[in-house]
């Protein structure tokens, strides 16, 4: 049986792209409803073609991750777009996004847009933050409002990957995608209007081809709450805290108040930046105080 990837889901139909580039409109077999499996965009599937354009999905191949909002599977990376100015660059919001992405085992790429609109003082601060995040191990791309910057700096990172684009409103996500795929003609601050999610059309998620990769047509992460992360798991989502935390005296150290905590000691040597640790503490308390869900 042939295998393919679901690139669009709409009104009970799944559009499966095969290796040879053909797209087959498929329905899911009843066994999925029985087993409570919902095929998602991004799923790799085994399908049976009834004719040249229609068929049935027989099996969903095991996913390596999935997101609930947006509903998409097997995401390789999340491009987190934050502007240098207008709106002002926020490390607190960026770290919140990073935790959500890390918790889903998705590789984050930080893209700081509108760098050409900064003063020299603002640009110095942005470059300092970029250096800090690179030192942690993150890929950081600086992008301007000039088209060639988006093409040369971001495009290569999208090849052979399934990516979601996420970030705060007004940072230039649509502008970036318009440069990469001018035929999309996306409205500013509305990534998905022309892709079937306008006011009068059915909502759906779709993978659109950009270069040699695919990008989800959704802004991603409509919820920024830590609903599926436990307090004890938070350090995994801060790579430098997790790495240095292995040296703590007590196993299960929360890195908040314990004696001989290697993480707290690392603040004085700048191995861990104070603002990152402050965000860790804040998120830890937020998760700890979360009301239980029943």
From TrEMBL:
Binding site for Zn(2+): 248, 253, 255, 261
BP-aspect Gene Ontology terms: ribosomal small subunit biogenesis
Subcellular location: Cytoplasm
PROSITE patterns hit by this protein: ENGC_GTPASE, G_CP
GO MF: GTP binding; GTPase activity; metal ion binding; rRNA binding
Residues bound to GTP: 113-116, 167-175
UniProt-listed Enzyme Commission number(s): 3.6.1.-
Reported cofactor(s): Zn(2+)
One Pfam family, short name: RsgA_N
Domain EngC GTPase: 73-222
Gene3D superfamilies assigned to the protein according to its UniProt record, in alphabetical order: Nucleic acid-binding proteins (2.40.50.140), P-loop containing nucleotide triphosphate hydrolases (3.40.50.300), Probable gtpase engc, domain 3 (1.10.40.50)
Enzyme class: hydrolase
InterPro entries noted in UniProt: G_CP_dom (IPR030378), NA-bd_OB-fold (IPR012340), P-loop_NTPase (IPR027417), Ribosome_biogen_GTPase_RsgA (IPR004881), RsgA_GTPase_dom (IPR010914), RsgA_N (IPR031944)
Domain CP-type G: 64-224
Alphabetical keyword list: Cytoplasm, GTP-binding, Hydrolase, Metal-binding, Nucleotide-binding, Ribosome biogenesis, RNA-binding, rRNA-binding, Zinc
Family: Belongs to the TRAFAC class YlqF/YawG GTPase family. RsgA subfamily.
Function: One of several proteins that assist in the late maturation steps of the functional core of the 30S ribosomal subunit. Helps release RbfA from mature subunits. May play a role in the assembly of ribosomal proteins into the subunit. Circularly permuted GTPase that catalyzes slow GTP hydrolysis, GTPase activity is stimulated by the 30S ribosomal subunit.
Subunit structure: Monomer. Associates with 30S ribosomal subunit, binds 16S rRNA.
PANTHER family for this protein: SMALL RIBOSOMAL SUBUNIT BIOGENESIS GTPASE RSGA, SMALL RIBOSOMAL SUBUNIT BIOGENESIS GTPASE RSGA 1, MITOCHONDRIAL-RELATED
Protein name: Small ribosomal subunit biogenesis GTPase RsgA
Provenance organism: Fredinandcohnia quinoae
Taxonomic lineage from the root: Bacteria, Bacillati, Bacillota, Bacilli, Bacillales
């Amino acid at each position: 049986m042939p295998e393919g990837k679901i690139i669009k889901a709409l009104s009970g139909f799944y559009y499966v792209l095969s290796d040879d580039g053909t797209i087959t409109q498929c329905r899911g077999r009843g066994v999925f409803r029985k087993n409570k499996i919902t095929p998602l965009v991004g799923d790799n599937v085994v399908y049976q073609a009834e004719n040249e354009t229609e068929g049935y999905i027989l099996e969903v191949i095991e996913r390596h991750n999935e997101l609930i909002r947006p509903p998409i599977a097997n995401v390789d990376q999340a491009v987190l777009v934050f502007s240098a100015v207008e709106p002002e660059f926020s490390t607190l919001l960026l770290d919140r996004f990073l935790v959500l992405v890390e918790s889903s085992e998705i590789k984050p790429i930080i893209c700081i847009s509108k760098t050409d609109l900064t003063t020299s003082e603002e640009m110095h601060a942005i470059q300092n933050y970029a250096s800090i995040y690179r030192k942690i191990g993150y890929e950081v791309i600086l992008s301007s409002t000039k088209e060639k910057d988006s093409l040369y700096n971001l495009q290569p990172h999208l090849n052979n990957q399934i990516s979601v684009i996420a970030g705060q409103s007004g940072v230039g996500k649509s502008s970036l995608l318009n440069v990469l795929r001018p035929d999309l003609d996306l409205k500013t601050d509305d990534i998905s209007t022309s892709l079937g999610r306008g006011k009068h059309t059915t909502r759906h998620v779709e993978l659109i081809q950009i270069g040699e990769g695919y990008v989800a047509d959704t802004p991603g992460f409509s919820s920024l709450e830590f609903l599926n992360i436990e307090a004890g798991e938070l350090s995994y989502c801060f790579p430098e805290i997790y790495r240095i935390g292995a040296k703590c005296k007590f196993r299960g150290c929360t890195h908040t108040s314990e004696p001989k905590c290697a993480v707290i000691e690392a603040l004085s040597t700048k191995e861990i930046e104070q603002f990152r640790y402050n965000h860790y503490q804040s998120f830890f308390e937020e998760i700890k105080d979360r009301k239980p869900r029943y």
